[in-house]
């Protein structure tokens, strides 16, 4: 491979990344966005009355914020199965963390919406600074599928 071929390949990869992810959006941006997501939800509780401007940000944060912080960003590039697994697990993990937080606050007789959201927002901010939880099932499945494709067509399964 010549130097020109190598440069063309690098430019193609840069163009694909720019077109697929948006220019300049990195895993650091994702960490900051997810880590800060709880604080606007907490601020939204100051909106008076049962306005959608009050409950929609809170609902979205409680439903996705802590789970996204725990699962993203993953080290390295994820296979499509691992991305799907992370998206599918974000809501159940968030809701589980919300239930644990609410139960803990009820047990110490300190539950309030403010205490609940501050606890989850602090957890999300701290967790977003850490690497995401590994997703071994999706990675293992991708590796096993790659091995099956490499098997010679005349090989036996004994």
Structural description of this entry:
- The protein is mainly α and 158 residues long.
- The model is unreliable at 1-22 (pLDDT under 50).
- Helix 3 (38-44) runs antiparallel to helix 6 (113-128).
- The chain is built from 7 helices and no strands.
Protein traits:
0% strand, 73% helix, single chain, 7 helices, mainly alpha, 158 residues
Layout of strands and helices, then pairs:
Layout: H1 3-21, H2 27-36, H3 38-44, H4 52-71, H5 80-107, H6 113-128, H7 136-150
Alpha-carbon distance between the two ends: 40 Å
List the secondary-structure elements in sequence, H or E: HHHHHHH
Q: What are the segments in which pLDDT stays under 50 over at least 5 consecutive residues?
A: 1-22
Please tell me what the overall shape is.
globular
Short description:
The protein has helices at 3-21, 27-36, 38-44, 52-71, 80-107, 113-128, 136-150. With 158 residues, the protein is mostly helical.
């Amino acid at each position: 491979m010549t130097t020109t071929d190598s440069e063309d390949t690098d430019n193609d990869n840069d163009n694909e990344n720019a077109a697929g992810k948006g220019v300049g959006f990195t895993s650091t941006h994702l960490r900051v966005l997810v880590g800060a997501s709880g604080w606007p939800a907490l601020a939204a509780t100051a909106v008076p009355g049962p306005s959608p401007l009050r409950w929609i940000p809170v609902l979205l944060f409680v439903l996705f914020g802590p789970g996204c912080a725990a699962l993203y960003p993953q080290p390295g590039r994820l296979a499509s199965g691992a991305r799907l697994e992370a998206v599918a697990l974000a809501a159940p993990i968030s809701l589980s963390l919300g239930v644990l937080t609410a139960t803990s606050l009820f047990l110490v007789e300190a539950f309030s919406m403010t205490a609940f959201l501050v606890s989850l927002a602090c957890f999300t901010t701290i967790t977003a600074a850490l690497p995401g939880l590994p997703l071994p099932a999706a990675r293992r499945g991708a590796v096993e599928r790659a091995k099956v494709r490499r098997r010679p067509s005349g090989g036996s399964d004994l």
